[in-house]
Amino acid sequence: MSWKRAHILVLGVALTAAAQPAQPNAFAEAVQAARDGQAAQAVRMFRTLAQDRNGEAQFNLSVLYARGDGVPQSDEMALYWAWRARFSGIKRAKVLTQYLTRSATPALLEKVQMRLRDDLGQRINEGHKEAMLSLGRVYLELTDPADPELALVWFTIAAALQQPHANTWRDVVGRKLDAKTRIAAQERAASLYKQWCDGHGTENTELCGYQS
Questions:
Q1: Using CA atoms, how far apart are residues 73 and 63, in angstroms rounded to an integer?
Q2: Which residues fall within 8 angstroms of residue 142, CB to CB, at 6 or more apart?
Q3: Measured between alpha carbons, how far is 49 from 57 in angstroms, rounded to an integer?
Q4: Cis peptide bond N-terminal to 164, omega within 30
Q5: Residue 189: how many CB atoms within 10 A of its CB?
Q6: Alpha carbon of 186 to those of 14, 125, 139, 156, 206: distances in Å?
Q7: How would you label 26-50 residue by residue, b for 16+ Cβ within 10 Å and e otherwise?
Q8: How far apart are the two ends of the chain, measured CA to CA in Å?
Q9: How far, in whole angstroms, is CA 86 from its chain's centroid?
Q10: For residue 161, which of 108, 210, 199 has the smallest C-alpha distance?
Q11: What is the pLDDT of residue 204?
Q12: Entry pTM
């Protein structure tokens, strides 16, 4: 599929895709700006929504970076936002990350995974528990070589904090590790869970039930 065709398809789907509840008007306006040829404005609007975890906006922002529409073309930022969209549950983003990865250098892939690790780690430190599952996936799917033990640490914490699908990721990865490695990951997860709850437990009293 050419990028021109992909671009049209992406924006056409986005017009009818469900934006996050608090953002439907802003999302529709961003799509319309892109369709009207106001690419720079669309980039600014999609970026604002993307930073607020709107998966469809993250996907479209990736496409605009890949095409260089309204923003300097950047393989790095296209791949970064494609992965963010994939972590947000946008199914089409899997194909997009695979497409972008095929032409990426090892250095670029390392740069993207480091950027994701840093940004998601910062979000976790700020109290955003949903970033934990994504960080675990970085260690499992992007890090080369993969680090399933560290991925299990973050999947375990995310599951304890009742993040959707985290228990499935935890159980699948955990079954592939030997008992010693799995127990070590659980112990590290318990320590980080307590540390996170010590800092953010007051706003998450229903989730932080740590006992020593």
A1: 10
A2: 83, 109, 112, 113, 116
A3: 6
A4: no
A5: 22
A6: 40, 20, 16, 7, 21
A7: bbeebbebbeeeebebbbebbbebb
A8: 55
A9: 6
A10: 210
A11: 81
A12: 0.86
Residue 21 has a CB neighbour count (10 Å cut-off) of 6
In whole angstroms, what is the distance from residue 75 CA to residue 73 CA?
7
Whole-angstrom distance, CA of residue 47 vs CA of residue 30: 10
**62 and 99 Cβ atoms separated by less than 8 Å:** no
The owner of tokens 């789907």 is: 13
Residue written as token pair 């990736």:
62
**CA-CA distance, 102 to 74, in Å (whole number)?**
15
Per DSSP, the chain holds a count of helices (H) and strands (E) of 11, 0
Measured distance CA(160)–CA(154) in Å, rounded = 10
With beta carbons less than 8 A apart as the criterion, state whether 91 and 56 touch: no
- Residue 68 tokens read as 């260089």
Confirm if 34 and 60 have CB atoms less than 8 A apart: yes
Contacts for 118 with CB less than 8 Å, ≥ 6 apart: none
Q: Which pair of tokens denotes residue 4?
A: 């021109």
In sign, the C-alpha dihedral spanning 198, 123, 89, 109 is negative
| pLDDT tens digit sequence for 56-98 | 999 999 999 999 999 999 999 999 999 999 999 999 999 999 9
